[in-house]
Amino acid sequence: MLTDNRKMLSSGVIYLCSSILTQLVNLLLIPLYTRNLTQAQFGQYDLIISVQMLLSLVIALGVHSGMVRFFNEFDDKQELRNTALTFAAAWGCVCIAAAWAVSPLISPFVFGAVKDAVLFIPYVVMISVVSCLNLVFSSFYSMQFKALKSSIIQFSVVLSTLLFALYFFMSKDMGIAGILRAQLFSNALVFAALFLLNIRTFRFVVKRDPLRKMLGYGMGLLLGDVSAWVLSLSDRFLIKAYMNLSSVAVYSIGYKIGMLINPAFITPFMSVFTAFKFKAYKDEDGTEKIRKMFRIYNFLGWLCVLGLTLFSGVAIRLVATEAYDSASSLVPLIAFSYFLSGSLAFYSLGLHIANKMRTNYLISLLAAFINVVCNIVLIPWLGIYGSALATVISYAVTSAVFYHYGSKYYPLGLGLLFPYKYLAVYLPAYAAHTAIMRIVHSPLAEMALNVFLVAAFVACSLFFRFISIKELLGDILPLANRKSKTLMLEGVKPE
Q1: Are residues 364 and 390 in the same domain?
Q2: Based on the domain organization, do 199 and 264 belong to the same domain?
Q3: For residue 181, with 0-12 CB atoms within 10 Å meaning exposed, 13-18 middle and 19 or more buried, which class applies?
Q4: Do 24 and 62 fall within a single domain?
Q5: Does residue 294 share a domain with residue 196?
Q6: Is 483 domain-assigned?
Q7: What is the pLDDT of residue 7?
Q8: Would 491 be classed as within a structural domain?
Q9: Cα–Cα–Cα angle for 392, 29, 36, nearest 5°?
Q10: Are 71 and 224 spatial neighbours (Cβ–Cβ below 8 Å)?
Q11: Does the pLDDT value for residue 485 go beyond 70?
């Protein structure tokens, strides 16, 4: 058990470091694009990327998820991986051929007279196909607890994208087509390296039973994945319909900064909590253990929301031009919506324990429907801020529904309104920052103010007993104490 815990901890640290490094490289790409594309062009590019993410779901058919699900149920792991790769490559070739065939027909209607628009759809499909193949390799390594190899794949793709973008986008001045070509070449380069490294163990093979199980599981997730896409990315198309591409561009920048809460906190936290919850819920004191994790999640989550809120102006000035300054007002709503989405892992636990996946998917569909309706109502009234608010409303309602149904099968007694208690601390800090920054324009003064407000948030959270020092440090201090005792004992051992 100790070995497993160490393995999980080391893997979690590696994934956290990789996630942060990957996001840092991505942040380098943003100013590259915003400073060399018009707002309308950047908005167009963001829509194309949104379409790519949707097509990736259809093209992948969840085969990598199926491989992960049944990885431990087949003795021949290499054969399982090879079956996934062979199917993904064959199905991908069909998708690529179809993309090249239909692109000349539909590109003029979708993209108008944009330069090289006929290349957009084929490029997007090819990127999706190759990235799916890379994902199979990454998942294969991940299931073997080879976190470093798995992490290197994604980081290599992002880093090589930056290098290819400097050539195709900057040097060759190919515009959006150059960005897409950079992504295609980077994914293809990483796949070629992976293929060569694994060529001795690769065979073109399709085993019926493993493929049937992988596709059955993966396609079963497709509806939920599409619903998640609608919830997260469909708002861009509604903003374009009601407003313009420049508004899409501003919204996209605010979204990219706000969603940094995901790699910085939510993803690493959930990588630990997912394994923890399915083990802890069986224990006699399992509910209390999970409630403790919930309180820690809320404190750290709100701390990240506040941090992103306070430093949003600085972050946007670093990655974009003055034309995008208004995006900073979107960051609090986007960060908060991601915080709420992370809390679903707690509220939906009962459904997962009872294996009520159909209910889970229906709730996801409800969330997508609410999001679309709220966008239609709020965008004409509040513009891009209405779209961000629609995302918050969708996740808030979804949390309530998951809480209701999840509690039927595994009541945790979390309290649906508990996360909103932190508004009593967050809102005054946000209001103070907004008021002071209207009269203070010094970057150093802003940094000092932000640090003070973060410290005040921590102090107030402890004062109002939203969290306790024991809850935050209860597991850390005993560990440090045991470590110090071990070192002392080792120090007095005779030679």
Answers
A1: yes
A2: no
A3: buried
A4: yes
A5: no
A6: no
A7: 57
A8: no
A9: 105
A10: no
A11: no
Per-residue model confidence as pLDDT tens digits over 262-297: 888 888 787 677 667 767 777 778 888 888 889 999
Kindly write down the DSSP assignment for every residue of 234-274, as one continuous string: THHHHHHHHS-HHHHHHHHHHHHHHTTHIIIIIHHHHHHHH
- SS3 of residue 8 by DSSP: helix
H or E stretch at 7: helix 2-34
Is the CB of residue 362 less than 8 Å from the CB of residue 222? no
The two structure tokens encoding residue 113: 């007279």
Separation of alpha carbons 61 and 489, rounded Å:
56
**Residue 495 located in a structural domain:** no
Report residue 366 as tokens: 């409800």
Cβ proximity of 353 and 410 under 8 Å:
yes
pTM over 0.70: yes
Q: Which residue has the tokens 């007993």?
A: 465
Specify whether 53 is located in the same domain as 158. yes
Instruction: Give the CA dihedral 138, 140, 146, 148, nearest 10 degrees.
Output: -10
Which amino acid, 457?
F
At residue 469 the predicted structure's pLDDT band, cuts being 50, 70 and 90, is confident
Answer whether 144's CB lies under 8 Å from 72's CB: no
Distance CA 85, CA 193 (A): 15
For residue 322, tell me if it sits in a domain.
yes
Are 304 and 374 members of one domain?
yes
> Hunting for tokens 């942060």 — which residue is that?
20
Domain count for the chain: 2
Q: Cβ distance 142 to 150 under 8 Å?
A: yes
Tell me, yes or no, whether 391 and 261 share the same domain. yes
Residue 186, both tokens: 């980077």
Three-class DSSP category at 492: coil
Same domain, 240 and 300: yes
The pLDDT value recorded for residue 495 is 35
- Structural domain harbouring 135: 1-220
Residues 409-465 have pLDDT tens digits of 888 887 788 999 999 999 999 999 999 998 988 888 999 999 999 999 999 999 999
> Of 173, 189, 220, which residue constitutes the final position of a domain?
220
Tokens matching residue 23 = 């996001």
CA distance 437 to 309: 13
**What letter would DSSP give residue 37?**
S
In this prediction, residue 409 carries a pLDDT of: 87
Residue whose token pair is 């939906």: 348
Of 334, 331, 301, 338, nearest to 421 by C-alpha is 301
